[in-house]
Amino acid sequence: MNVFREAPQGIQTAPHDPRIIAAGYQVSVREVDLSRVRDKESLMLAFLRGLGLSENFGRNWDALYDVLTDPDARPARFALVLCDYEHFRRRHRHLGAELERVLLDAQREAAAQGRSLWLLAEERESDSRHW
């Protein structure tokens, strides 16, 4: 599966080794680890760390949208890997719905600017693979 051959389409399943595949398509990749998110503040901190933002990041939905759609802040071909996304959505339904709205709005705005923003959901390997 190679999501980078097509235009971004919502939140998609991340391919195995997304960084390696993205490199061949000149797509920059950043990862946001959602496994330790407890509330909106810890979610915003996860984005601050994952996107390499400065401490003056506003830590609210508008600030996140602005960071994702700012052509000076993100490359024209950019993938955001959301680590542990489905588990996060199950644990935090309301917060997950708000995040999804912001991410999809940012993806649409990026497309309107002639840019690409892939949103890739990646799950941790199951611990059940012991031999």
Write the CATH fold name: Barnase, Chain D
Q: Which percent bin holds the helix content?
A: 40-55%
- From the spread of the alpha carbons, the general shape counts as globular
> What is the highest CATH level, the class?
Alpha Beta
| Strands, total number | 4
Report the structural category. alpha/beta
Number of helices: 5
Summarize this entry quickly.
The chain is an alpha/beta fold and 131 residues long.
Describe this protein with a few key phrases.
131 residues, alpha/beta, Barnase, Chain D, four-stranded parallel β-sheet, 5 helices, 18% strand, Barstar-like nuclease inhibitor, Barstar, Barstar-like_sf
Explain this structure.
With 131 residues, this protein is of the alpha/beta class. The chain has one domain: Barstar-like (Barnase, Chain D). It has five helices and four strands, in the order E-H-E-H-H-E-H-H-E. It has helices spanning 18-24, 40-51, 61-69, 85-91, 93-112, and strands at residues 11-13, 28-33, 77-83, 116-122. This is Barstar-like nuclease inhibitor.
